[in-house]
Write a structure and sequence with these properties.
This is ABC transporter substrate-binding protein. The chain is α/β, with parallel strands linked by helices. The chain contains 14 helices and 13 strands. It has helices at 2-32, 41-44, 70-78, 100-103, 116-121, 143-148, 166-179, 183-201, 230-237, 256-262, 277-286, 294-297, 306-309, 315-326, and strands at residues 47-51, 54-58, 65-67, 85-89, 108-110, 126-129, 152-155, 211-216, 223-226, 240-242, 251-254, 266-271, 301-305.
Length: 331
């Protein structure tokens, strides 16, 4: 009798294992065939994010998001979130080519910031700003005003701090990925950006010498340049030395005389707006003071689009452009 009881016990356990395997297989097949699959606990759990002086709780992933500046638009698209977007705004220049097809799926609400009425008409539930102005007086509205309308907000932290680094961008990417429940995509994006930057660094000279670099945004009587903003990080990673990295500011204005005295060997020209990069270079070549720098004498200019210089997913591309311009023989 005991023998038969043991046999039935073994049979029952085997049957349970078979049924469990079949159930798991059917679940996988249903997911592969596009049938409705119950969301995981991680996808339905509340997400709490502290940002821009507010604490916001997301009971579910936003479904009608609007991005308010180009570099955060590209972060959304890099995470594959175009289907969760009902609008974009404020391009600095052309959208990053790999994201063009995804970008074309999303309505462009305004050349600059959309009005609060446009946001409401789009039934937005999430606004992603790249710069503080997005939620300032000339922007869409304050986070408090928008929260009262049931609209979550997120301000890209890396773009609104002193001395931002690549790691600060990664924190923002992780936060957005967490809000939209696509953490795996966020980590994959960060891993790829890290590998790309490491590959560039491996090609740089290892002699320890510092290449003096001036970042030229604009200026006629004075020079508008980068101090301790993200351009400083990009120039440093690319093997250069920002000649105004000692100035306690982000973007700053300096005298031509000071720029000449620090004698840059390369000038990075930021390309955006109505004045073309070529026009800026022509100005540098003909300015009585700035034409005396080694960079202008040797015509060593590197053109960098403003959208690539922002704290976004194009950081590795920006570093590649700079590194090639600084050390052409190494690339």
């Amino acid at each position: 009798m005991k023998k038969w009881n043991s046999m039935w016990l073994v049979f029952a356990l085997a049957l349970m294992a078979i049924l469990g395997a079949c159930s798991a297989k059917e679940g996988k097949e249903s997911a592969a065939q596009g049938e409705k699959v119950e969301p995981s606990q991680a996808a339905t759990a509340e997400v709490t994010i502290d940002n821009n002086g507010t604490t916001q709780v997301y009971k579910e992933a936003p479904k009608k998001a609007i991005s308010l500046n180009q570099h955060v638009t590209e972060i959304m698209l890099a995470l594959g979130l175009e289907d969760s977007m009902v609008g974009t705004a404020y391009l600095d220049d052309k959208i990053y080519e790999p994201f063009q097809a995804a970008y074309d799926k999303v309505p462009v609400l305004a050349d600059q910031y959309p009005t609060k009425e446009q946001v409401i008409d789009a039934e937005a539930d999430f606004l992603y700003g790249g710069w503080k102005s997005a939620f300032g007086e000339k922007g869409v509205g304050t986070p408090e005003e928008l929260e009262a309308l049931g609209i979550h907000t997120y301000l890209h932290t890396a773009s609104n701090m002193t001395k931002p680094t690549l790691e600060n961008i990664f924190i923002d990417i992780r936060n957005i990925a967490k809000i939209f429940r696509v953490e795996d995509r966020g980590e994959a994006l960060i891993d790829q950006m890290t590998k790309d930057v490491d590959n560039i660094r491996a090609k740089l000279p290892q002699d320890g010498k510092e290449l003096p670099v001036l970042v030229f945004d604009s200026g006629d009587k004075e020079v508008f340049t980068a101090a301790q903003n993200f351009m400083n990080e990009l120039v440093t990673i690319a093997g250069g030395k920002n000649i105004f990295s000692d100035v306690e500011s982000g973007w700053t204005t300096v005298s031509k005389e000071d720029a000449v005295a620090r004698n840059p060997e390369v000038i990075v020209v930021i390309d955006y707006g109505e004045t073309s990069a070529e026009e800026k270079i022509n100005f540098l070549k003909n300015d009585p003071a700035l034409k005396e720098t080694e960079a202008v004498k040797n015509e060593r200019f590197v053109i960098l689009p403003l959208s690539a210089a922002s704290e976004g997913v194009r950081a590795a591309d920006a570093i590649q452009i700079l590194a090639k311009g600084f050390y052409p023989d190494n690339f």
